[in-house]
Amino acid sequence: MFGVKRSPPRSLLENAVNTLEAAGLTCALGGSGLLAALGLADSIRDWDLTTDADLERVAPLFAGAPSLASGPSGVHADHKLALEDGAIEIICRFAFRSGEAVVRIPTVVSARREGIPIGSAEAWAIAYALLGRPAKSELLFAWLRERGADSAVIKRLLAEPLPGALARALDALPRRPPSSTA
After folding, report:
1. Pairing state of beta strands 95-98 and 149-150?
2. pLDDT one-digit tens code per residue, 85-143
3. In this structure, are residues 103 and 128 in contact, taking their beta carbons and an 8 Å threshold?
4. Could you say which of 95, 115, 145, 157 has the lowest number of CB atoms within 10 Å?
5. Residues 90, 27: contact at Cβ < 8 Å?
6. Any alpha helices (H) in 31-163, and if so which ranges?
7. DSSP run (H or E) holding 150
């Protein structure tokens, strides 16, 4: 999938996406899966899916599968549901603490590749920066500088309480028209 050398089984990702979408929930692939889909990585450690739904809505959908739920901790202000020994991580209401504020990262489907909803490079550039992973953040910022950023996604992210330097970097990206899925 996405031309990668190593990843967890694709069937696990497909099953999680199908389950979420069958329940009417929007989800999007992020993390190393997003990087691979954009041609920026050649291996995927786990499948990260985001959704704007609460954990209370997501967890019952996977009641028959072994799972581990976790809540906010450290910089994370969201909830997660890990499935298949961590091969799948569903991030519910993706958010980070930034100083005294909470920055919500919206689930935006930027495209579908091989049937999988692909998340927003703009959102994950911010997420990686807030996670303290500058190399991955810069990879996405460089990709966006080359191809342009979705103006609607930028507007949504700039409405969040981002640190000043990060907001300025986001605002400085060249714009392209909003995608039809954003």
Report:
1. unpaired
2. 999 999 999 999 999 999 999 999 999 999 999 999 999 999 999 999 999 999 999 99
3. no
4. 115
5. yes
6. 31-37, 55-58, 121-130, 134-147, 151-158
7. strand 149-150
Cβ partners under 8 Å of residue 72, min gap 6: 78, 79, 97
pLDDT tens, position by position, 38-89: 999 999 999 999 999 999 999 999 998 888 999 999 999 999 999 999 999 9
CA distance linking residue 25 with residue 6, whole number of Å: 28
Between CA 23 and CA 49 the distance in angstroms is 15
**Tokens standing for residue 111:** 């495209």
Distance CA 129, CA 124 (A): 8
Tokens of 64: 């028959």
pLDDT at 150 over 80: yes
CB 89 within 8 A of CB 80: yes
Return the SS3 of 148.
coil
DSSP string, 88-108: EEEEES-EEEETTEEEE----
Average pLDDT of the residues in 4-17: 89
User: Cβ contacts of residue 87 below 8 Å, gap of 6+?
Assistant: 8, 9, 12, 46, 47
Q: Are 46 and 77 within 8 A, CB to CB?
A: no
